[in-house]
Amino acid sequence: MSDVRSEILNTGITELKSAQILIDAPAAKIFEIIASPALHPAIDGSNSVKSVNWGPERLSLGAKFGMRMKLGIKYKITNTVVEFKENELIGWRHLGRWIWRYELKALSPNQTLVTESFDGRPSPIQWWLKARNAYPFTERAVAKTLVRLKRYAESGV
């Protein structure tokens, strides 16, 4: 599985970076991984998510959870789930207002198309995202996250 790659999607929107991958696992299994904050460090392709700081074991609409992060410097961030449809959609944001979104489409009982997006459009600090080169960075990060998610979901863990 070392040559596995996700497909970076051309959204046509500078502030929306997305990638997708086909995972040989049921949507419910994949959703459980994404909805478990404790597993985020295992699937994070940016290598910035270090550990869950606090929050529920499983996410739901309106749930808040804190993460320990490191992107140059160590910091803590609080996220809020703002989009949620069981086994199909989950998205969260923090004070920067950009959204990390996962969309799952079951193609068969054991095969799911997963799209991850970084949606910077809601953020009032576009200047900061652009100054930090956030859009090119997150485009690569979501693609890598999906590969890690696929490996985790298909590993039988």
Superfamily at the CATH H level?
Answer: START domain
Q: Can you tell me the CATH topology?
A: Alpha-D-Glucose-1,6-Bisphosphate, Chain A, domain 4
Spatial order of the strands forming the largest sheet: 1-2-8-7-6-5-4-3
Q: From the 3D coordinates, which CATH architecture would you assign?
A: 2-Layer Sandwich
Could you estimate the helical fraction of the residues in percent?
Answer: 10-25%
**Element-level helix/strand string:** EEHHEEEEEEHH
> Average pLDDT value?
95
Q: Helical element count? A: 4
Percent in strands: 35-45%
Rg measurement, Å: 15 Å
Give the termini separation: 16 Å
CATH top level? Alpha Beta
How would you characterize the overall build of this protein?
The structure is a single chain. Helix content is 25%, strand content 39%. The protein has a single domain (7-154), classed as Alpha-D-Glucose-1,6-Bisphosphate, Chain A, domain 4 (2-Layer Sandwich). The protein is α+β, with helices and mostly antiparallel strands and 157 residues long. It is built from 4 helices and 8 strands. The two termini are 16 Å apart.
